[in-house]
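Lay summary. Proteins are chains of building blocks that fold into shapes, and those shapes determine what they do. In this project we predict the shape from the chain. Here is one chain we studied, written as its sequence of building blocks.
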Amino acid sequence: MALRLQPRRTHLPARRIARWHDVASKTKAVPAQRIRSLDALRGFDMLWIIGGDAVAASIANISHNSRTETVMTGFSEHVPWVGLHFYDLIFPLFIVIMGVALPHSIGERLEQGESRRSVLGKIFRRTALLILLGLVYNGLFLFQGWEQLRLFGVLQRLGLAYCATSVLMVFTSRKTQAAVGVGLLVLYWALMNWIPVPGYPLGTLSENGNAANYLDRLLLLRHQMFTSYGDPEGLLSTIPAISTCILGVFAGYWLQSDRPKQRKAVGLVLAGIACIGLGLLWMPAFPIIKKIWTSSFALTTGGLSLLLLATFYWIIDVRGWSKWAIPLVVIGMNPLLIYLLAEVVDFEGIAGYFLNGPLHSYSTYQALGIAMGSLLAKWLLLYFLYKQKIFVRI
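And here is the predicted shape, written in a compact code that computers can read:
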């Protein structure tokens, strides 16, 4: 809160009054410094979404080394059901990053005196826009009836997690937010064990027998889901995703504090290790399954996300080594735009037009060349926008 000193209406010397105004100006709240590493980490995350996965898959396909193939598959494919690949970390990492930014975007507005009504209006507008863009991504412009349109998806889950977490920040204390974050994980575990699924014992976690997918099948039509047995971004599994966002919020609180930067980095590492440990301890009773976002999955991927955040923060914000990250920052400054454009622009076709000829004699490497060319085309577009200072925000 800013401290304002008002001089009394007396015949005090002008020099003393000026000195009082100088003191007042120095005590005004200073905006928190931008966490530079957050843009780079967001870019690193988006890199795999916009083509890094295709490059890894192409390397796996042409590799004659089983270890290389296994590693590259982990960078390009989700685990079929139980388990964890690097590629399963991409979505929760983005939600954690979104949470880290909230103390700056929501918290500072409230601290600067903006009314709750105004802040809530911005939260609900952004949520509605994210959900609408998610429906557009799913084919809203080709509308053939709601029963033919997938209702959930990545952007819808981002919008719902953002909305729930932001509203919680507006109305509750940090202690309450922490309690809700933990409580949602426990609540989800309880619901998955107590909601009966016809034909299956309580607590079944098979693709068809788990409660999350059963509720999707019960409340949604077949074409409103991503698969016939449920939706990986469906109704019930959104609950633990909110906890993932809350974890990011507390990382944001930590980074926003006045503690030394080295201590902040260490704190993130310790918190990450603790979350991973809790997730692994919970795993025997509640296995790590990305497609229904189990509580052990939320904790484990949340912990890994904190370790990545700590690494980027230490390198860029603590050590000051930032030039290497510019290619990632270019991506991280326009994540939503490139995510949507990649769905409507045929970047692979553009790359194939230029590369099919030169690569025709090397058919084994043709898919790899096109995957790399497509990724480069997207990056060049983002670089042009970056140089023009064009950043799409909602």
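What the prediction tells us: The radius of gyration is 24 Å.
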